[in-house]
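Late entry, evening session. Most of the bench is empty. Finally got around to the prediction I had been postponing all week. Sequence below, unchanged from the version circulated by S.P.
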Amino acid sequence: QLHMGHALDNTMQDILIRFKRMQGYEALWLPGTDHASIATEAKIVENMREEGITKEDLGREKFLDRAWQWKAQYGGRIVSQLKKIGSSCDWDRERFTMDEGCSKAVKEVFVNLYNKGQIYKGERIINWCPHCLTSISDAEVEYEDQAGKFWHLRYPLTDGSGYIQLATTRPETLLGDTAVAVNPNDDRYKHLVGKTLTLPLVGR
């Protein structure tokens, strides 16, 4: 179901679409729901846990059956809530991402982008949930502030004329350092341009 963030976001969209209609534009707000929700999956898994079963117990196909059952039972709740807050969508044209037309369009665009070389495999740092055992999008990540330390490290100049002090929250990355950059336009660091440093602890 929707939370206050959804209500705010949809209200802002509604304001914009109504404003454009009042200006004489033919403004269509097409409503739709998405099948690929990590939040929905988490809720289904939570309910299954209460029954003493896991996704692994069911297997992929039976878990998908569960997901479709969940959608049939609760899928209309979001639409009902959007209608209640007055979202001026064209409700006669509501879509679902697994509808045949939508699904076909997505596949066609994906294949076209792949053939153009714009979709490819690569190694990247991703958000990974160790509990769900899946990658999650940036939009699903919730950050929290934690008390930590700010380390100030001295890197000695190789010629023995002094040192440069660097600050970091990740001192363990020091071992992999290969270069230090300074702003050549900053009077505090102009004298360091072209000099070399010795990596502390390693002596490299």
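Two things to note before I forget:
The radius of gyration is 27 Å.
The longest strand covers residues 151-156.
Will write this up properly tomorrow.
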